[in-house]
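[recover] target loaded
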C-alpha cells in the first residue's frame, strides 16, 4: 500500500481517513492489552484491505493514556503532518506502515512514543507476526508506565 507523500499529507489535513475509537480502564489495559487492542488491529486491517488511510485510538479513561495505531509514510504522529512536508520529498511515493503510538506524560520526557510495527501489506498478510510485534510493544510500554508509577510512589513526599 503506497501513497504519494503530498497526497497523504493532504488527506490527513482534510481528515480523509477512517477513525475508530475505543475506551478501557487502566486495570483492563494492563491485564489484557492484547484483548483491548484487538478491535483496533482488526479495524486497521480492514482499512488496509480497503486501501484507506486510518487511525484507531484506545483511550484509557481513568488515566492520561492514549494508544493509537496509525497508517503513515513516516514515524511521526498523524497530527504532525506539517513536519512531514518539511523533511520528505512530497512528490515521491512511499510505502505506508502501521505505527503504534502511546501518549502519556509518564512514558518519557516528550510524553510520546511511536514505533513502526510493520508495512501495511505485512500487517494484513502476516497478521500473527504483526500481532506479536504489537504484543511485545505494548508489554514494554506497560512496563514503563508501571515503573513510572512505582517510582512516583517511592519518591513522593509523604504528608504527616
Amino acid at each position: 500500500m503506497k501513497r504519494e507523500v503530498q497526497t497523504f499529507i493532504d488527506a490527513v489535513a482534510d481528515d480523509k481517513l477512517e477513525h475508530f475509537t475505543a475506551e478501557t480502564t487502566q486495570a483492563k489495559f494492563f491485564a489484557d492489552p492484547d484483548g483491548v487492542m484487538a478491535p483496533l488491529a482488526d479495524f486497521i486491517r480492514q482499512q488496509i484491505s480497503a486501501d484507506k488511510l486510518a487511525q484507531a485510538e484506545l483511550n484509557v479513561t481513568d488515566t492520561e493514556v492514549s494508544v493509537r495505531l496509525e497508517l503513515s509514510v513516516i514515524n511521526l504522529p498523524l497530527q504532525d503532518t506539517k513536519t512531514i512536508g518539511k523533511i520528505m520529498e512530497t512528490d515521491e511515493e512511499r510505502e505506508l506502515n502501521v505505527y503504534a503510538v502511546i501518549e502519556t506524560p509518564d512514558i518519557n520526557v516528550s510524553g510520546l512514543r511511536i514505533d513502526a510495527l510493520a508495512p501495511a501489506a505485512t500487517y494484513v498478510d502476516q497478521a500473527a507476526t504483526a500481532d506479536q510485534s504489537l504484543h511485545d510493544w505494548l508489554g514494554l510500554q506497560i512496563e514503563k508506565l508501571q515503573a513510572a508509577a512505582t517510582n512516583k510512589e517511592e519518591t513522593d513526599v509523604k504528608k504527616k
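[recover] notes: Residues 12 and 78 are 7 Å apart (CA to CA).
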